[in-house]
Design brief:
This protein has twelve helices and twelve strands. The protein is α/β, with parallel strands linked by helices. It folds into two domains: 113 residues, Rossmann fold; 182 residues, NAD(P)-binding Rossmann-like Domain (Rossmann fold). It binds (2R)-2,3-dihydroxypropanoic acid.
Amino acid sequence: MSKPYVFITMKIPDEAIEKLSEVAHVSVWEGDSPVSRQRLLDEVQKADALLCMLTDSIDQQILDNGTHLKIVANMAVGYDNIAIPYAAEKGIVVTNTPEVLSEATADLTFALMLTTARRIVEASSFLRNGEWTSWSPLLLAGQDVYDATLGIIGMGRIGEGVARRAKGFDMRVLYYNRTRKKHAEERLGVEYCELDSLLKEADFVVVLTPLTSETKGLISTNQFKAMKKNAIFINTSRGAVVDEEALYQALLEKEIWGAGLDVFQQEPVSTEHPLLQLPNVVTLPHIGSASIKTRTEMALLAAENIIAVLQNKKPITPVC
Ligand code: DGY
């Protein structure tokens, strides 16, 4: 019997390709930018399994082309790039990569909090640009992280990781989630509150909720107006959870103090983007889970999901 065919839409760590190659013919898109739509349509037509990235739009047309496609393994925890109900209707398994990336993403979220609050990027450029002429009392003075109040919107595994880190900084941690997490409250000493109260009380508002039809545009003008003037807004989930125009206005009009963003509505973001022109914004190119160990584990988990499905076993981390 001939081996199944797996198409991988970007270069991933070798370990995962080797694992897949034991059971399948594997082809990898070697380009540095995402695979073209036409190539993806062509590959999906031949594929038994697709290992894809959050940059690939796996919509109805792609799924329809996969006449013998059994699984779409997304190398990300978020899966807003995939038409999940349609895949479910067609009996195509979709998997994601939860847990393995929680700690790395929590690290990055905390790093963004510290970097934004203490103006690290601005301070570094200031020094390198030769602007440092003297020490002075309020030079590049920022906000305290230690002992501040943190508000986490979306208390999943990454949220819990951020809360654990925050406890080491003696922070009061509030959270808002669709369902209350009593276990997290007991274990981590975090306090549940409604979104409005969280926005009013938090010095740091951190968005970690997945992008769904309910969370799209969740944080907009009214939410920014409700925040403290010294509030720092952090987003490491998905750009579309936030109304970027409203965020820009809030920063410009000093409704809030600063923002740290790892994600944008349109990625890659243009250097002309208004948010990149503001000094009180730290911007990163969607690197939440980008540690070598984590990205390797994500690729391996995606590969293991594919192998399980190709061997008629249950996937490890199914979405549908
Ligand atoms: C995810 O897995 O959804 C992350 O955004 C990738 O870094």
